Amino acid sequence: MSVKVERFSSPGKGNGLRAVSGVPAGGRVWSAAPLAACVSNTLTGEVCSGCFTRRASLRRCSQCRTAPAGVGSVHKRECVCLRDLLPRAPTDSVRLAARILFNPHGTSEELYTLEEHERGLSQLADMLQIYLQPEVPDLMEEMTSLPPSCQDPLSLLAKVACNCFTISDEELKEVGVGLYPSLSLLNHDCRPNCVVVFEGSRLVLRAVKDVCPGEELLISYIDTVSVTADRQRQLSDQYHFTCNCQCCGTQAMDGAMLCGEESCWRPLEQAHPRLEGLQADSRILPSGSLLSAAECAVPDDNVHKLRVADLALDACVNLGVWGRALTYGLKTLPAYRRYYPDPHPAHGLQLMRVGKLHHYLGNTEEALDLLRQGYEILRITHGEENPLTRRLSLKLEQCRAEIRPS
């Protein structure tokens, strides 16, 4: 931990965390290993369950085929449950709750609680008991080692669902879920003063604005590039509260996010979930024609056009169509700059991505400009010591060397 923080009663929010001393933008506020963590079910073939990094090839557990061989004592117990449940697979929340029980060193820490929310959790609680039956025949007896507030499957799952963090790689792509009890005290704001990044499964909290002594530390629970009503709905459905931040109160960006003719951007909104599904299956995305149809009637700032353009960029990169990828990438940058106030890691990563496309296509000066902008953001959000930031620094030096006269 780099900065002393303390728990306090946050008006209208319950518990919260605040800095005891001031923190400059880019300062490392807190770092914590998870009480329990697991790789997302959809990524068990790509991400190592031990270090949470992507690997080209993983030697699988010969018994359950879901985790790398030799990942430790926790998987030995989990493996029995996974094998018995095949061909079904437990949800990420169920696996995470089970790992809390399996962790012999993590059950002594009291979980900080939010108000319990039972809707939709009964079925998961039943699944938890079914999943654990081979390894924990008497589940209720095993759960007595947990804090009193967690000695019920439904209560445990409620806390996991409300308090777990999505673990992402250095490029903000999801790789798993983890529980970090102390940091579950962090409250939400759509324009926060801190961001969460991960080093493997280790959570790092960094300030993106200067934080005064006694000021509450805030993060965003969701991707905030959505209109106010959609953000409010997601926060209510997933975290069971209504956001009253300044951004939600003013609804300042809603008009820009839905600019253009509705009859033209509505098909983009409706197509997005289907296109995401195609991307997940590594299939070609038919997004170019959608974007062409909306080109004149829908400005690039429209949030639905932005999302489809991002998917088109991904598709072109996967297909090696670099020129079209650059075209789509350049179209997204003004909207990223507008909707992700600097320094925001998503904006920094997009600048880096488009800068690399410029460099690959031989546009070194343009690449240098975008990569430099990206670096100035990522050195704050990720830190200069982060492997991603270091690689970007080397890329900048390469571009500068190419531009220097011989």
TrEMBL record:
<dbReference type="InterPro" id="IPR046341">
    <property type="entry name" value="SET_dom_sf"/>
</dbReference>
<dbReference type="GO" id="GO:0008270">
    <property type="term" value="F:zinc ion binding"/>
</dbReference>
<dbReference type="GO" id="GO:0140999">
    <property type="term" value="F:histone H3K4 trimethyltransferase activity"/>
</dbReference>
<dbReference type="GO" id="GO:0032259">
    <property type="term" value="P:methylation"/>
</dbReference>
<dbReference type="Pfam" id="PF00856">
    <property type="entry name" value="SET"/>
</dbReference>
<dbReference type="InterPro" id="IPR050869">
    <property type="entry name" value="H3K4_H4K5_MeTrfase"/>
</dbReference>
<dbReference type="GO" id="GO:0005634">
    <property type="term" value="C:nucleus"/>
</dbReference>
<dbReference type="InterPro" id="IPR001214">
    <property type="entry name" value="SET_dom"/>
</dbReference>
<feature type="domain" description="SET">
    <location>
        <begin position="3"/>
        <end position="222"/>
    </location>
</feature>
<protein>
    <recommendedName>
        <fullName>SET domain-containing protein</fullName>
    </recommendedName>
</protein>
<dbReference type="InterPro" id="IPR011990">
    <property type="entry name" value="TPR-like_helical_dom_sf"/>
</dbReference>
